[in-house]
Every structure is written in structure tokens, then in C-alpha cells.
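User: Continuing from earlier, I have the next pair ready.

Assistant: Great, send them over.

User: Here they are, in order.

Assistant: Folding the first of the pair now:
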Amino acid sequence: MNFPPKIDLLMLNAGIMALPQRELTEDGVERQMQSNHLGHFLLTSLLAPNLSNDARIISVSSSAHQFATLSGGLEFDYLWSGGSTDSDYGFNGWKSYGQSKLANIYFSQELYRRAQERGDINWDVASLHPGVVQTDLSRYILGVENWDRLSGLFGNDGESNDSSNNWLQDGVSQTLSSLFSILTVPEGANTHVQLGANAVAERPWKAAYFEAGKKQRLSDVALDVAAARRLWQESEELAGLGENGFFVALDEKQGAATEMDRLEVS
């Protein structure tokens, strides 16, 4: 896989939400946990050699992380499997989503801590809640068939396929927005853009959590260092990063550069 030679900003934004039934990936991991956390973890590890020394790494979490914090935090006997290892018993789509969103926050915190401990990189890290946004992330809440009907009416870009339906599109949008404070996609991207464009004055972020462009206070459960470390260790194992762990690709690149310098000197 070819990556850009230098990356100054990494935005970890992929996600799925509230699956109606348990789905395991080919790796045997609950699908939301793999899509929302483990994939980001592995991607960041693979990109580490290409990240600039002062790169910014932003994880898109959610206020839904509170589903996990209010019940005591990550449940490691549930987290990766989504319930019983041999059946769907005990699975809850919202529970798994909340667990994955708390994992986003823990990943940001542990990544920042470990980058600081190394001393040779100066990455700044943050996580954010974008708000409730008009995207197809909610398709499992309405049901896939109902969502597809709605998408067919409006089109993939949210615009009506029939000008006679504009009134319906506007009415649905305004009603949902007024009832649930649902944001448009540009509105929902505001915090992403502000952090990505380095337009937030509060630097360094030091793994802070943002909403509406402002730093937010996290609960003690969301700041659990021991849980974040355990998540990191289990993520390394499941991502197949071996004994050298998350920074293996970065260490190999630095080792090769050191050897090249040594050969040039000799």
C-alpha cells in the first residue's frame, strides 16, 4: 500500500452505528469495534513512519461514549466479541457503539502519552464529538429498507430526485432538526475543520476532547489510564503488530535511517 511520504494531519473518521444484530468480521471482532476503533489503530500504526514530527491526529468519537462511561467503562469480556463468543446472546448495538466511542477517546489519550514517552516525536492528538449529523450513519436506526426508501427519494447527495418533493425534503429536515438538534453535514464538520486547520487556539491539545470547537470536560471513567493501557495492549495483539507493538513500522524506518547515516560516515 502506497501512503503519502509526509502526513501533517490524520483524521480518523470512519464509523458505523447501532447495528441491529451482532456481526463479526473475518478477524472474529465485533464489526463496530473493528470499524470504529481497531481499524483506526492499525492504520495509524502503519502510517506512523509517514507522519511528520509535529503531526496532528484527530479521532472522531461521540457523546455516545457516555453509554459506556455511565455503565462503568469498557467491558473487556464484551468489547471485542459483542456478547457470547458462540451466539448473539447479550449483544446490544448501542452498547457496542458506546464502547467503541469510548475506545476512540482512550486511544487518543494513550497515543499521546506514548508519543510523549518516546521523546522523538511531537504529535498532538485530540478526539471530538461532531454532533448529531444528517448522514447515513443513522440508517440502522430507521431500518435499512426504510433508509433506502428515504435515500431513493432524496438521492445520495441529500437532494430530492424529484423537484415536486422539495417540500418534503425541507419539511423532514426542518422537523428533525427542531426535534433532535440535527446538524447539516457542513455544520457537523465544523469541529473537524477547525482542528484540522489549526484554528483552535487551545494548543497543544494533549488528547483533549472537543465539541462545537471547544474543549470539553471528561468524566473520571473516560480518563481511566489503566483501561486505556489495557485497550492499547489488546489492540496491538488483535491488530497483529507483534512483539514490537504499535510503533514497529516507525522504529524500522528510524533504524534504517540510522544505519544509512552510519554507512555514509564510514
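And the other member of the pair:
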Amino acid sequence: ITNPDLVPGAAGQTCAQIGDLAPTFTEGSAACTAIQAAEITCCPQSLDGACTFCNEGIANPDLVHVGGQTCAQIEVLAAGNTEGSDTCTVIQEAESTCCPQTQDVACAFCNEGITNPDLVSDSAGQTCAQVGALAAGDTEGSATCTAIQAEESTCCPQSSESCVPLDPSPYTFEPPNDVFPKAPWTTGGDGEWTIDDTNAQEGTYSIKSPNLEGGSAGIALVSNATLEICDDFSGGSLMFNALAPVLPPFDSLVWFIDGVENSQLAGQLEWRQLAIPLPPGAHRIDFQYQYNPFSVPVLPDDQPPNRQGAVWIDAVSLVSMGA
């Protein structure tokens, strides 16, 4: 393994961890095939006609892309892949972070100004001014833009006067909340979550992730349902109910607190209530549906019979500390 600490996909395992998993699966199985797809990242070979990446140079080699690798590491991966391959196409998507160009519709970030440009975000590792520069080079609605916008709660936190509270609590998607998105909710990424009446934990409606199947082969796709929590929150827990008939390497449900992965769920065929502990203050919660999180070039044909290719969220509530 060329770089044991490299993280090749959205699932979060390092190359060393994937290497430890490989002997537990049978050669030729769907799981083994998914694992072997990481070889192009974990042990790339130098190629003629290598994948081009940031031909005019990388502005900041130590900048960490949303997938977890630095721009310098991604450049090494490019050299081990062929121009025009599916993997090269995925790698080149990181150019918007590593060598950004001005976009027609730039990623919106702190539209009313950055409160403290020199503040360093704990999750991103860059100053708010640097995160703002990244946003200017990315496109609104992209997966990278969604991750960047998670830093708004640090760089330009909303005051309680302008923030919309989660009301009622529990927040269900019954009338008059059967319109999505509306504050304090937003949605974005490679598709949008919508109101759905096929599954609900309470009442008739819930929110459902989009159908992302049929996209470009070998490319991981994500879609977020995002909840903004106001800065007057006294601390406690966010309770929510999830239905997740999904299964890696096809798809999974992952949730993030202020841009940092908290946990994930798959193979959940019945509604399940979960809790996220939260400290006092403003927070951004991203419920992220991930399709092909390992960027497998060709997913197995033998899909599990209980997989439905979507996840649902319902009955969301904030429980204050001591309540």
C-alpha cells in the first residue's frame, strides 16, 4: 500500500483499514469487488497518458478536500490513473477545491459577511477567510459546496433574531410543514430531498432522499437534508427517526454535525429513533444520503432484495439539557 493513511472513498476507512478487511471476504464476492476498487487509490501504478490534474499548479498542496485527502495526495493519485477513465473523472472533480476557477454561480458563503476572517474552523482546519476563498471557486449545489457551507455556523453564525427555530418539536412533515424545504431546513448536493407519503414514522408524511442511481459510473454522489439550529439552543440532544433500507457499497445514510461526520446507518428496515448529543449554541446538521460512497467503477448486479435505494427522516425534535 503506497499510503496507508489515505482515505479513498466517502465511507471513511483508510487504505490500511481496507487492507485489513480484504482477507475476511471471498475472492469474487460483491464485497471483495468493492474493496478491490480501492486499489487504484491505495496502490496506484505510474501510467503513460496519466490523468491531468491542476495543470497550472495547486494553490495550497496541504488543503484538505471534502473526501479527506490533501490536494498533494490527490495529485499523486492522478499520476496513477489514465486520462479519460472514470476514476480520473472523479479525481478531477477535486480541481474545484485544489485549483479553483471563478464559476458563473459560485458557492454562496456568509452572504452578509464573515464575522471573524482569522478564526480557524476546528473541522476544516482553515481560517474563515480561506474557507470563503474556497467557496468562490466552487459551484453552488455541489457536494464540496455543501461541506463548505457547513462552516457558516462558525464563520458567520446566525443571531437568534434571524434564525428560524425548529417548531413544533417534534417537527413532523404534516400540514402546514408538508412543504420541503422551508426554514430551518434546506436541501442540496447532487439531488434534493422531498416530501414523501410512502413512509412515515408519525402521520402521513416524511422527507425522502432523491434517486441518485443511473449517474456516471464510478462517481460517488451525495444529497443533504440540512437543519440549522439557532444559537440560543441551551444544549442537549437532537432526536430523529430514520428509515434506511440501504446497503454499502451501494449506498448509506451518514449524518454530520457542523461538517464533521457523527455516525451512519444502513440496513435499517424499520423506523429507528436516534439521538445526537449537542453542546450549547448554533449548529448545522446534515443528513446525507450517499450513493456509491466508495466510487466503485461498476457496482455489483446482485443487489440485496431489501435495498430500496433511499432513506427517510421524520419526527425531529430538540431536547434541552435537563428536560
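Worth noting for the second one:
DSSP finds nine helices and ten strands in the chain. The two ends are 50 Å apart (CA to CA).
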